[in-house]
Amino acid sequence: MSKLFIIFGSAFAFLAVAFGAFGAHVLKAKIGEQHLSVFETGVQYQMMHALGLILIGILSITVFQGQSSLLNWAGWIMFIGIILFSGSLYMLSTTQLSVFGPITPLGGVAFLVSWLLVIIAFIKS
């Protein structure tokens, strides 16, 4: 599981760079400044939490030798958070359909829960 989080985190980081370039070079001319800002927020949070997934994978391997179910939960919840939070912002900014707006806070809550689980894993160790 630990290596999988490193792989997923690296893939999400790769995509964050690609989406950032897409936003700067393609979307900038096609959507308004407000929607571009929303898109950029999605990219920033995706990159931060991609690095978080990589960190969870490394901590799981080095500190916990793959034996922390809390870190496994943290990784999966962070994975879901990236999809919900950043994904909803990408959809909201590019389609301008407000139906995607209520999904974003669910991703934010997933981020908070995942970081809390990392804290609890270390407190319990």
Describe how the helices and strands are arranged.
Elements: H1 2-25, H2 33-62, H3 69-95, H4 104-124
Helix pairs in contact: 1-2, 1-3, 2-3, 3-4
Largest sheet: none
Mean pLDDT: 95
Oligomer: single chain
Ends distance: 19 Å
Proportion of helical residues: over 70%
Structural class: mainly alpha
Cα-atom radius of gyration: 16 Å
**Secondary-structure element string:** HHHH
Strand content: under 5%
For the record, the count of structural domains works out to 1
Shape: elongated
Number of helices: 4
Number of strands: 0
**Low-confidence region ranges:** none
Kindly describe this structure:
The chain has 125 residues and is mainly alpha-helical. It has one domain (2-124). The protein has helices spanning 2-25, 33-62, 69-95, 104-124. Helix 1 packs parallel to helix 3 (69-95) and helix 3 packs antiparallel against helix 4.
Keywords:
125 residues, mainly alpha, 4 helices, elongated
Quick structural overview:
The protein has four helices and no strands. The protein has helices spanning 2-25, 33-62, 69-95, 104-124.
